[in-house]
Amino acid sequence: MSNGILSRNIRKMNHCGTSCSTIKCWKWDITPVILMHNKPSLRYAVLILNRPISQEEAFMKNFWEKATLRITVDGGALRWDQFLTRLPEEISNKMKIPDLITGDFDSITEETLQKYKKKGCKVVHTPDQDYTDFTKALKELNNHCQEHTIEVDNVIAIGQASGRLDQILGNIQTLYLAEKQHLLHPETKLYLMSGDSLSWLLEPGNHIISIPEETRKHNRAWCSLVPIGETCHSVTTSGLMWNLDNQSLKFGELVSTSNAFDGSDTVKIKCSHTILWSMKVPSLTGE
């Protein structure tokens, strides 16, 4: 068990009682993720990517301050600095500085970089152009955790699903690389927060997702199940407005965008291949 997120294996038995396959099962509860700043026992890292910060001000202040690790990624340091200028000076002056600033530094201004260097921030230049700054930041986060014997259960990258489409797809690519290349500790969960939504990958197997009350009661709450890079040959769901019954998800055919919830406490999903799950969380932007 890790902060409300359960992962376990179930052996499926055939008629003779022997094990014929292993089904992975996960139980997801995002409430600890969105309220983790109120739970001091939870360990998480926050990454600020180079997109405008649209989350509710009080949420962002607490979310940043209570984090185990705080990282700004290239121009994300400038975005964070801009966020601080919106706060009263007596508050912004007391906010914790980033533990780490990473990137190829093609987006951050030299003035901002020097400002945070003088404050004592650790700066790591990552010039490799084969990976995005987001991907490289996860590698540096993992290095930093190993170097300083720090454990985090969740990593939340704050960006925006707007602007350049190639950068949005690059962020999704990083979610996949984190899984395929083991960029983080195996027990660490990675989420992408964009505006009032959270996205993460559902690996092949069974998933039970607890739906926060605020989402269930919101009349415009949405969710989506999107296959990325390959066909998901079989998806079965319950708890959605438009459920899937052993159906295939594939670009050029069916993709479940703009789905909704039926009011149930949980959504259950069984998928044959990895898919991207996204959902609205109204309180992130103060709705």
TrEMBL record:
The keyword DNA repair does not apply. Gene3D superfamilies: Thiamin pyrophosphokinase, catalytic domain (3.40.50.10240), Thiamin pyrophosphokinase, thiamin-binding domain (2.60.120.320). Pfam families: TPK_B1_binding (PF04265), TPK_catalytic (PF04263). Pathway: Cofactor biosynthesis; thiamine diphosphate biosynthesis; thiamine diphosphate from thiamine: step 1/1. Its EC number is 2.7.6.2. Transmembrane segments: none annotated. Keywords: ATP-binding, Kinase, Nucleotide-binding, Transferase. The keyword Metal-binding does not apply. It catalyses: thiamine + ATP = thiamine diphosphate + AMP + H(+). Residues 205-276 form the Thiamin pyrophosphokinase thiamin-binding domain. GO terms for biological process: thiamine diphosphate biosynthetic process; thiamine metabolic process. GO terms for molecular function: ATP binding; kinase activity; thiamine binding; thiamine diphosphokinase activity. Belongs to the thiamine pyrophosphokinase family. This is Thiamine pyrophosphokinase.
